[in-house]
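Weekly sync notes, structure subgroup
Attendees: PM, AL, DS (notes)

Item 1: joint prediction request from the bench team. They want all two components modeled as one assembly rather than separately. Inputs as received:
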Amino acid sequence: MANLLWLQGGACSGNTMSFLNAEEPSACDLVTDFGIKILWHPSLGVELGSGLQALLNKCVSGEIPLDIFVFEGTVVNAPNGTGEWNRFAGRAMKAWVKDLSAAAGYVVAIGDCATWGGIPAMAPNPSESAGLQFLKRSHGGALGQRFKSKAGLPVINVPGCPAHPDWVTQILVAVASGRGGELTLDEFQRPKTFFHSFTQTGCTRNMHFAYKVSAPEFGQRKGCLFYDLGCRGPMTHSPCNRILWNRQSSKTRAGMPCIGCTEPEFPFFDLNPGTVFKTQTIMGVPRDLPDGVEKTGYMKLTAAAKAASPSWAEEDIFVV
Amino acid sequence: MDDSGSGERAPDEHEPRRAQIAALLASLTTDWERRADETERFREVVRALRGVSLEEKLRIAGFTLHPVDHNDIEQSCETCMYYLVHRRWCELPEIDLPVRAEWSCNVWRI
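Output from the run, pasted for the record:
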């Protein structure tokens, strides 16, 4: 049996909605098949008021062992670092986060807000939001660079806006079943099993990427979304085209450019007008190139690929 | 594409239109020197291209009958992201014209 506590800070509940829609395994499977006891969750918990306060205090004191502490949403520090804008169960949420993280076997940040601050931490960041151990790319966040949970791991970051339901439940199962130590994390503390490949990996538009055929408008089945519509699939680490959404699709498969929501910089360019769904260029060359590709090589490759492209690459090959 | 190995393509149904555009460009002064280096300028040009005549379109987009060397980058339709190699067509919705590989315009991007 592993005790799990889930709290929300500056959040829209999107990751909770995602979690409750998980299928492999489902939220119910966590309880019935994997021995996870959900002590409390904003959408599932039954305790209220002083009852909840007592539960949280018991987790902090160790009277109730806290095996997994899951946090969704930002840690709100406003005003002036006090965190009083986000009070919960009688005190600032940031105080609960600090105390519960210190008591937990594992700490798991779910979604962009909890991992790097996400949309609330965009400039000018009026809520002084931060992620648990990062603020965008900057290591530290609410718990500080050196934080490690009792199991010896830093915060396990499962980003996304929202995170895919199965990323969430599969990581929770790994931790609850004693395999947390087997998780390998990348430089942003994301489990490599999910975040080592790219969103582009498995994208059905890869042929059009290879032959440099662009989709200049939405709603087209042919063409790559990277060249004109700002798709960040080649630069974003996620398994969105390997572990499909609703088991059948992904943004790019549906004609929607990847917005890079598993990366610390999300939302990119602070959502300035003209930067969303539009590839940013400098002298006609994309500002952000596929991971590991440099400008000269990109231009040579593009010229060669266009020259070699077959005629079918200009057609819609997905015949209904 | 022909099979002579020359790399030249056979004329298609749009060749008369290309010839018409080429004739227009031969005497038209276009804004070819104002390259859309930044995304903002690109958006301005694209906005200005909506609902204008062919001649205005060519002028605003800065079409030339030859590649333009800009900051050591040779910009020609042939390497542009909007160029469909086999159809010899610019598929930027605001341009949407038959073109030739050696032409260029100021919204070139790769």
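Discussion: The interface with chain A takes residues 35-40, 42-43, 70-71, 73, 75, 78-79, 81-87, 91-93, 108-110 of chain B (CB under 8 Å).
Action: AL to compare against the crosslinking data before next sync.
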